[in-house]
Amino acid sequence: MPRRFRTPRRTSLAVAAAAGVGASVLVAAPALAHGYTSDPPSRALLCKQGAVTNCGPIQWEPQSTEGPKGFPQSGPADGTICAAGDSRWAPLDDPRGGTWPATRVSSGPYTFTWHLTAAHATTSFRYFITRDGWDPARPLTRAQLDPAPFLQVDYGGTRPPYDVAHSGTLPAKRGRHMILAVWDIADTGNAFYQCSDVDFG
Prior knowledge:
Elements: H1 10-28, E1 34-39, H2 43-49, E2 66-68, E3 103-104, E4 108-118, E5 122-129, E6 151-154, E7 163-170, E8 176-185, E9 190-199
Parallel strand pairs: 3-9
Antiparallel strand pairs: 1-4, 2-9, 4-7, 5-6, 5-8, 8-9
């Protein structure tokens, strides 16, 4: 007995048409900004490289730690800063008992680098560091950071290159610390957050 094929209803055709239009819009939309710090390497990059395991999906998307901008007045909640407030990247907020690999650094001149997988109009790149006496065995909070960035590079809405370098000066510190790099996007409500563990010795 031959199979009968039903003629699609008008509503089904309308839904299919709408889906096709949506797909076209998604394809045509400009790429969103993404990027990660490569020097000092961020926790996200260490996960991508396999230097740290049990990271969850951030190992495939180290460039995607995107959250609300306006830090420190607003932005990700305390304890979720390294993951940019996104629960998918929560392993980045886990202090692992203070055992994340730390890059050896010294106070003084330092060149900070980012690798961008999608550039975007930029307000600034800002770099914060933890206070003396902070607890590396606890998730990062605003109270653990020096209140002002030790380095800020303004872009005035221009688009940075895909590999970015910023020359600055690391403040006088001792022992383990964390550097929080914040990339503020000019034409969206978001920023990118990258946490790097460092050791001043």
